Amino acid sequence: MASNDRETDKQSRRAAPVRRRITALVIALLLFAVGGWCYRAWNAPPDLPPVTETPFLNATPRAKYVGSHVCTECHAAEHASYLQTYHSTSFGEADAATGFPDGEFYHSATGRTYAVNHHDDQAWHEEILWTHDGEPEILAGFPVRYQIGSGHHAASFAVEVDEFLFESPLTWYASLGEWAMSPGYDTPRHPGFQRPIAHGCLFCHTGNIEPIDGSYHRFKIHEQTIGCERCHGPGSLHVEFRESTPAEREDVDLTIVHPERLSRERQDDLCAQCHLAGEVAVDLRGRKLTDFRPGLALNDFRAYYGLRDADQSMTVVGHVEQMQASRCYQESESLTCISCHSLHGRPAPESRLEHYRSKCLNCHTPSSCGINAEDSRRIVVDDDCVACHMPESSTDIVHVAS
Q1: Residues 6+ away with beta carbon under 8 Å from 254
Q2: What are the CA-CA distances from residue 144 to residues 117, 212, 223 (Å)?
Q3: d(CA 255, CA 229)
Q4: Which residues contact 85 (CB under 8 A, 6 or more apart)?
Q5: Can you give the pLDDT at residue 206?
Q6: Read out DSSP for 180-215?
């Protein structure tokens, strides 16, 4: 009997290491499973609220951008009219023949001279310090690569260093007809040619850009100027539909956004992509401004915040909020930006007054004016509604009126 007990005890001792190994393996597998579950939970895409519904099929990531050159194959007339707008010249190569003259000016805040010179068929921007001997010492000088802005109000410029883009401290101001410091540069200490041009700046001036390897200011520019797809949405589905459908087609094509078929709020969102600033703009978690598509609600992608007692001066990119604060907008059910501003063209200078006056008279009548028609105040401005009700004023950017 004692012999049997000893044998059982030996077998139990031999089995113990096996049991421990099996137990350890089970625990390890359980820990691995729990760790994997935690990793997936922590790294899972955020549970975002759904995007506001839209009937337009190209408002989804499935639709791809094709470029304005594809649109012009069928819409040459529309493209030609669009080329008359300032949006069509929002960004581009800084050709030496752009029409901006050579010049220089002294910046008293820094004690330096800034100069624009054309040589080697390029425009060069230079920062110059004068020595005690009265000799110029060029601190920095770069050939200009890109023009930013149409030049209607102003034109700023970008230089390229090792394929990275930086802002030039020199800007051409149309109201002055001369060169001066770029916005934010009129201080004793400024970044010179070292202010990087980021995606947020170029997004509103270019048609389609892509950061290279996630870079902050190095980009692949697919389309230089603002193009058709900024307001109509990605065109790939529309191209496929038109190429595969007979000439007798349905009247409403949902593969492309037609801005006039959008609700008032969605029309405002088209312009607000770039013409709404706010004091602070925050991308929603898991989304970014470049995910927005025409036809969607902009506030599904970005939140804008303003101060309760905000400065009432004009802001260059605050047009949407200033429009929405107006009495015309608040007492209308249909007024939007494109009620007055055409996406495809602008009036000739000689017809500008009557063009915008007719926009006002879509809702008002000549008798709506509180000033008698014979009053000199009305005569001197040639009965121009805008001259009295939307006078130009200085903006948050020096030398620029709006």
Answers
A1: 55, 56, 57
A2: 10, 21, 19
A3: 12
A4: 342, 343, 344, 345, 346
A5: 93
A6: EEPTT--SSS--GGGEE--HHHHHTTSSEEEEGGG-
* Count of helix runs (H) and strand runs (E) in the chain: 12, 14
Task: Say how far apart CA 220 and CA 208 lie, in whole Å.
Answer: 9
- Residue 301's Cβ-side half-sphere holds a number of Cα atoms within 13 Å equal to 16
Please give the structure tokens belonging to residue 394. Answer: 């200085």
Locate the DSSP E strands across 73-204.
91-93, 103-107, 112-119, 122-130, 136-148, 154-161, 164-167, 170-173, 178-181, 195-196
- The amino acid present at 334, given as its one-letter code, is S
CA atoms within 13 A on the CB side of 233: 31
> H or E segment at 116?
strand 112-119
Average pLDDT of every residue of the chain: 85
Identify the bridge partners of residue 164 per DSSP, sorted by sequence position. 161
pLDDT-derived band at 162 (thresholds 50, 70, 90) equals confident
Q: Is the dihedral of CA 116, 118, 121, 124 positive or negative?
A: negative
Residue where the block lists tokens 């500008």: 352
Structure tokens at 58: 């190209």
pLDDT digit string (tens) for 31-59? Answer: 777 776 665 656 655 677 888 899 999 99
Percent of residues, the chain, with pLDDT higher than 90? 48
- Check: CB of residue 258 under 8 Å from CB of residue 268: no
Instruction: Provide CB contacts within 8 A for 206, sequence distance 6+.
Output: 90, 91, 221, 223, 224, 225, 226
Lookup: tokens for 212: 């290279």
Q: What letter represents residue 229's amino acid?
A: E
Q: Which residues contact 46 (CB under 8 A, 6 or more apart)?
A: 285, 286
Structure tokens at 360: 């006002």
pLDDT tens, residue by residue, 19-30: 677 777 777 777
- For 126, the 3-state DSSP assignment is strand
